[in-house]
Structures are given as structure tokens and as C-alpha cells.
Design brief:
By secondary structure, this protein is α+β, with helices and mostly antiparallel strands. It is built from one helix and 14 strands, in the order αββββββββββββββ.
């Protein structure tokens, strides 16, 4: 009778251990659903309104419906999948506005890639449209190899297949130009 009780006891302990093992495994698989995919952003923000200052002076305002932050990646970046509106405010308080349907900012290089209906209206009334435009903040330079159109304050129109310029557009190098230029007689 003693041996029968020992075998019963061992069977009960084995059944209990197996039950614990399976219940622990089940809980582990449930918690894995809370793990973040390695390709996911570290953060997402909605209805963003960022204000940038330099020495107490407001220099820019960035508005976007959605921002994804991938600064946890080896080559850190922030993505704006629903586009941006960026107001750039100069030292005199004049505002230039940049819009695009999509943008991505590479933190390490300071390069901003804007795509889809890029539209720039400068404080001096220059209007530029392009499919894609890059802005290198580290050297204050903008460029594209895509078609663009610019309308200057004096009414001159320029269309071309790419350009590079300083961010104030006082230096502009354009390729394969076509346009209208008004000349005083």
C-alpha cells in the first residue's frame, strides 16, 4: 500500500509540474504580443506643432499631422508620412513657407528629403514648385534633380530639370532652362 501512495504522489507531482510548464509557456507567448517590432518607430506623434528658437528668437515652426521617430536606428531619422508645413522666419520677422506631401529628416547628416507637391513661397514672393527637393541644413543648400518651376517676384518664370541654390536663393545654378524673362528696354 505504501508503494501505491508513493506512485500516486509522484503522478500528482508530475501532473502539477506539467500543468505549470504549459501555463507558463502560454503566458510567455501572450506577453510576446506586446513586444515592439524591430522596424517600428521608437515614438509616433500626431498633430505636431514644433517651434524652433535660436538665442530666444523664433526661427521656424513645423506643423505635421503625423511624425514617426526612428532615432533608435543606426542611421537615425524622423519621417513625416502625411507631409509638412514649415514656416521659416528670418531675422527681420519675414516668413517663408515650405510644404510637401511627405518628408524625411536624417538626423546625422542634417538632410531633409521632401517629396510630392513641394511648394515654397519665400518672404520676397518667390514661388517654387517641385516633385522632390532636398535641403541640406548643415550648409544651408537646397537642390533637386527633378523638374521644377520658379516664379520670381518680378514675374520671370523658370522651368528646368534640376537646380541647386543657397537657401535664400541668391545663388541659383539651374540645368536645362526654359522660361520667360522680362527685360527693360
Amino acid at each position: 500500500m505504501q508503494k501505491k501512495n508513493i506512485y500516486t504522489f509522484i503522478n500528482l507531482v508530475t501532473a502539477f509540474a506539467v500543468t505549470l510548464f504549459f501555463s507558463c509557456q502560454s503566458k510567455t507567448s501572450n506577453t510576446s504580443s506586446y513586444l515592439i517590432d524591430e522596424d517600428a518607430p521608437i515614438a509616433e506623434a500626431f498633430e505636431v506643432n514644433l517651434k524652433y528658437t535660436d538665442s530666444g528668437r523664433l526661427t521656424a515652426i513645423l506643423r505635421t499631422p503625423k511624425m514617426k521617430d526612428y532615432t533608435n536606428k543606426g542611421f537615425a531619422y524622423r519621417e513625416f508620412p502625411e507631409g509638412i508645413i514649415l514656416d521659416i522666419i528670418d531675422k527681420d520677422g519675414k516668413v517663408s513657407v515650405v510644404k510637401s506631401d511627405y518628408a524625411i529628416f536624417y538626423e546625422e547628416t542634417g538632410l531633409i528629403d521632401m517629396r510630392g507637391n513641394v511648394d515654397i513661397k519665400t518672404a520676397d514672393s518667390t514661388h517654387l514648385t517641385a516633385r522632390q527637393l532636398y535641403w541640406d541644413q548643415s550648409i544651408n543648400w537646397v537642390f533637386t534633380d527633378q523638374p521644377y518651376k520658379s516664379i520670381l517676384p518680378d514675374g520671370n518664370v523658370n522651368e528646368a530639370d534640376g537646380f541647386d541654390a543657397n537657401q535664400d536663393f541668391t545663388i541659383l545654378n539651374s540645368r536645362i532652362n526654359e522660361g520667360t524673362m522680362f527685360i527693360e528696354e
